[in-house]
Each structure stands twice: as C-alpha cells, then as structure tokens.
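User: Some background: our group keeps a shared notebook of sequences we're curious about, and every so often someone picks one and asks for a predicted structure to add to the entry. Today it's my turn. The entry only has the sequence so far, pasted here. Could you supply the structure so I can complete it?
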Amino acid sequence: MIVEQAPGVTSAFRACIEGAIASGCRAYFGSPSPLHALLLNEGARRFPEVHGTFTQSANAIEALSMAQGVAQSGSIPLVSAGYPDFLALQEVLQTCLDQSIPCVIAVFLYQRPASASASPLAFTYPCFLNPWPANGLPLVNLMPANLDRLYSLTQEAFQLARQLQQPITLLLDPILMTQTQALHPPLEAHPLELSPMGPRLEDRIQALEELALHQDRWQQSWRHSETIDYYLIATGALGGWLLEADLANAQVLVPESLFPLALPEDFDKPAYVLEFAPGNLYRQIQRLRPQAQLQQIVLPWQRHYPVGLHPDLMQRLEGLSLAES
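Assistant: Of course. Here's the predicted structure to add to the notebook entry:
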C-alpha cells in the first residue's frame, strides 16, 4: 500500500521564495525593511542552500542597481521592496525598461492605515495600470489571491521576465502575506504564448497590448449562468476569501493582474466591485470599462476577517436589494 504524505503547511514568505528558486532564480537583492523582514530572512536562508546568493543593500535603489548588473550577465534576479521604496525606484526601473533588462520585483503593497477601520493594503492601482510616460511601455504585473497562486505566479513572473526581457512586478497583498496554508501547486507551469517582440519600441508596445487583450488573468468560481444573480469582483486576499466562500448566487471574479487585464466586454448581470476602505479598484475598472454597469461595495477593515466576512457581505447586499441570505 502506498501512503502519500499530505503537503506541509507553509508561509506566504516561504511560498514566494520557493517559487523563485523553482524558477531557476539564484540571486536575491533586498534592503532592510520591517514590512517584509520575513521574506528577507527566508531568502537569506534558502538561496545559499541552492548555491545562490542573497545580498542585503542599504536601500531599494542599490538593490535594483545591483540586480541590473546581474541581469546583464544572463541571470534573472529577484528584488523585493515595500511600496514607498518602489516609488523611489522609478528612475532605475525606467533604465531597466529602456535597456530590456529582465528581473522580478516583489512589491509589498503596504500603507500605514489612516484609521482602525482602514485596510493596510496600499490601493495604488494607477501606478500599475498606466503606461510609463517616458516610453509608453506598461509595467507587467501579477497579483496572487492565495498561497497556491503566489507560488505559481512567482514562477510565471520569472517566465514573463525571460520572454519579455523587462522587469515584472509581483504585487504582494500584505493581508495575504500573513497567511499560512498547505500548498497544492500545479505540477508544471504552463508556458505563455507571446508574439515575437521586435527591436523597435513600437513593436514592444504592440506586443504588450496584444498580451493585455488576449491573456485571461482572472480566477473565478465556476457556476451555471442560470444560477448567477450578480458578479463580485475583488483582488488579493479578499478575492481569495470570496472564492472559498462558495456564495450561492454570485459569480466571483478575481483579477490576477492589473496589466495585462482583459476585462469582459459586458456583464449580463449586475457587477459589484468589493474592496476594503478606502478603495480605489472600482474607479480604475470604471475608467477602463466606462460602459459597464458597475457598483462599489466598500467594507471597513476588520482584523477578524475572513471569519464573519460572509454575513457582513450578505448584509451589505441585502441593503442594496441584490441578494438573499
């Protein structure tokens, strides 16, 4: 008799580092930060074990500058930064885009909550949706909703960096990064079908626009259309919780990227963007798809979530006359 051992419980930080190592990454650069110190600690432990290197820099600018040199030698490095540090990286990041330097930047989307009811998630979606003013190239990014997807999307980020020859950002929800679970990753990463990118800037922009139009970047709960009364759209850990909630009348849609993001042409049922206060996703989706019939539901951040999320959501929906408990 063959007895299979159940997969062990792992942390989000370990899932991210193991996904990078499984992708062949052997160089990790990061600066000291209390926000993602566990990610740095895990990288400092694991990379030397696989004959890789972990280098701690004085700040995020130095980390990306050192990674730029490693990338020019043929390797694809990992860089981590908090969102305030990521804003300081813009000049070096622009150089990486201009010179077609591949790397993966894990951005910890944390902001200091303005109040006890505000989420720590930095709702900075315009930064990752809009093209760069200098050359018009969009910054391709991936945003996992659970630890399984964090592990696999980290690998996919390195694959995209290799194929597109540019930096790829991995957007880490700080709520998600506090979770632990047993990983059930896919056996292998599915290769992406990308058009060949020419040397001209216009060719790269066109190829990336095609990627946005044709790449399906949504996780969703599968239901028969006749049983759906409304759609719920959410990102990050909130989206992952909704996918697991098994809502009776809702089709849950969770975008795994802000670019590429191929939005549905229309919704045949009411669509509601669910987000924690203060919220910004609704405005961005509305800007991208102004003709869609969207509404916003803003939840105050509660530290006990996901416990209690379902009744709170049902109460909001009943107040809008959208669903039955």
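Suggested note for the entry: DSSP finds eleven helices and 13 strands in the chain. The radius of gyration is 20 Å.
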